[in-house]
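Encode chain A's predicted structure.
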Amino acid sequence: MQYDPIKKSLGTVFNKQPFMRKIFYVLLDLILLRAWHIKKAIRNWKKTHINNAHILDAGSGFGQYSYFLSKQSPKWHITGVDVKTEQIEDCNNFFLKIGKSNQVKFRFADLTEYTNESAYDLILSVDVMEHIEEDVKVFKNFNDSLKPGGMLLISTPSDMGGSDVHGHSDHSFIEEHVRDGYNMNEIEEKLIKAGFGKVEVSYSYGKPGQLSWKLSMKWPILLLNFSRLFFIFLPIYYIVVFPISFWLNYFDTNSKHETGTGLIVKAYK
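Encoded structure for chain A:
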């Protein structure tokens, strides 16, 4: 399954102008269920961190979460790091154009090596850890980089069908994943081993979220892999599907799930 090339193709279309990029961010936030869960957690964290805060977006990608964070408070300072130099350059150019380069900066960093001793109040890691083999080493780096009382917020697939893997013969929906998903107890134990004092883990992508993901992500990507001509029909597809996915995302975000294909993890130093 080719997922990364599809992301790059969409990014090329929307990233030409700042206005189009902002629309792209809005669309990602509406369609991607993980964005709903992450934004809810950030808004809750914001209640006790209205003033000056330093935040690390670890694995910043297109920069959509750094952009969301920058809108929450002008007193927040965000550093985005990634291993893809073209995305770092692209994000720095975009935030310069929209006048946020003093608040948000991007740099190259390998998370297995990157530490910034007691520098951050919040570290955000969205769909990153499933790509990194040396996860405990990264968790230790995160712990070292947090201020006392700081929080690490993670979104990652679970072992209950994350990456669309449901059996030993299945393959990950995302080919770049080094693991198909975390067991809830496994990631908690690894974070405690890395030095975190308190860890909260909950399921995301329950039954509503799983259906929404198939409608809004899996099936369109399957069709785009079959033929890029589907790009022409993509707007029509989402006009029909989006209202359904919207309510499914809402119910998933505001429900407690006994199981799910995703995990939302909060770890405190």
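The beta strands are 53-58, 76-82, 104-108, 120-126, 146-157, 198-204, 262-268.
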